[in-house]
Amino acid sequence: MVRKDIATVSPETRVNLHTLDFRDPWAFEDVYAGLHDFVRSYRFDPEHEDYLVHITTGTHVVQICLFLLTEARYLPGKLLQAAPPPRRGRKAQQIEGSYRIIDLDLSKYDRLATRFAREQQESLSFLKAGIATRNTAFNTLIEQLEHVAIHTTDPILLAGPTGAGKSAMARRIYELKKHRRQVVGRFVEINCATLRGDSAMSTLFGHRRGAFTGAVKDRPGLLREADQGMLFLDEIGDLGSDEQAMLLHAIEEKRFLPVGSDREVQSDFQLLCGTNRNLQERVRESLFREDLLARIHLWPFRLPGLAERSDDIAPNLDYELERFAQRVGRQVAFNKEARRRFLAFAVSPEARWAGNFRDLTAAITRMGTPAPSGRITVDLVDQEIQRLETAWAGSAPVAEHEAMLTDFLTPEQVDELDPFDRPQLAHALAVYRQSRSLSDAGRRLFAVSRAQRKSTNDADRLRKYLARFDLTWALVSDR
């Protein structure tokens, strides 16, 4: 029929027929597989030929498959939508029919492109919780995380130091997917470090009544509660070995066995994991299952600590002031000199921010609560700086050092470092991440020797220091 129609309106057009046999033209799998095999084997030449894909004839399944193959660019053409002539009216006898060309290249449609760009920006603001970040690396990370979160149901691993915002980011991912109607169930969160003893299995996987002393009724467990939703297991590195084995089975099969039950139950959830530990090191110490790590490490993202995002401290300061005002019901602000002094300290190498955003939130609370007339003064800032320095003094951030080192070195290289070199190299790497150039890092790291005129070429000095560990500025600054 199509061949006859083409001959009627364009006699000079040659039609080459390729016959495809389907056992059932209404069976989606058979039709798509047959068409997919054909287009993969056909030699298209889009540089010299234009292709139109006719989607009007055939079963609805055939039309859908042709549309999908064209949209995915397996068929490098445009859609041809044909229509018969009108049955009534004067024009019914005057025309053979009509057609319309549909180009699926959405980038050519300004209104659609603008709409998609707006939706992507809304997604990014979802994940950043409305905070305008100035940090290029963090912006890139959020864009990558947003893309993955929307397009996968596989586990996502959020690593980073304590207080870096893993729990808040997990909830924002859930809200993003719920906003896009990709999940309909609940957001369920548990800190695995709080799971101990026999109750750990019951908390996660549930139990049947009478399974053990005190089990007076059935308990669904957190995995069941997260069905059709999202489960966030924070500090997953602290999960026990038995729970790890059960979790791996639940991830892969979407089924698991409650305590005291002889029948498996189902739960289809997306898993988010958080950790401040080096999970590879936990595997080497036989404290974490290698097969479970392989399963949850498909999409790893490391959230940087506050000290690594020094250019974001100012906007986060304003954000924390707004949150404080919402909690206590009154507005609080810095006077000009107090804000300048606090920010100068906050971005300096002396500000460790060991607790990251938790430290910043606590600092705002301590300064804002006694602020006279809602104004944070220089005296209050000086008191808080002294408080933070005292809290940070003498507490070697071992976990932070390990996390920083493993970002740039292999586990074997880390093992070869002397204990003396570890904190020094970790601190230097942290400063590099905050610096715009090697010279800028030198000014921060060698401030004392510069003042005493003992340092003449900071950049060269740092370049040689990095070379001791087979590192370069290009490698460090790229991360």
Textual characterization of the structure:
It is a single chain. With 479 residues, the chain is an alpha/beta fold. The protein is built from 22 helices and twelve strands. It has a five-stranded parallel β-sheet with strand order 5-6-9-4-10. The chain has a three-stranded mixed β-sheet with strand order 1-2-3, with helices on one face. A two-stranded antiparallel ribbon has the order 7-8. Strand 7 (255-256) and strand 8 form a beta hairpin.
Rough outline: extended
Number of strands: 12
The DSSP helix count reads: 22
Radius of gyration: 30 Å
**Largest sheet: number of strands, sense, barrel closure:** 5 strands, parallel
Topology:
Layout: H1 2-9, H2 28-41, E1 52-54, H3 60-71, E2 78-83, E3 98-102, H4 110-127, H5 136-151, E4 156-159, H6 166-179, E5 187-191, H7 199-205, H8 222-225, E6 230-234, H9 241-253, E7 255-256, E8 265-266, E9 270-275, H10 279-284, H11 290-296, E10 299-302, H12 313-328, E11 333-334, H13 336-346, H14 357-368, E12 375-376, H15 378-392, H16 398-408, H17 411-415, H18 421-434, H19 438-445, H20 447-451, H21 458-467, H22 473-477
Helix pairs in contact: 2-3, 12-14, 13-15, 14-15, 16-18, 18-19, 19-21
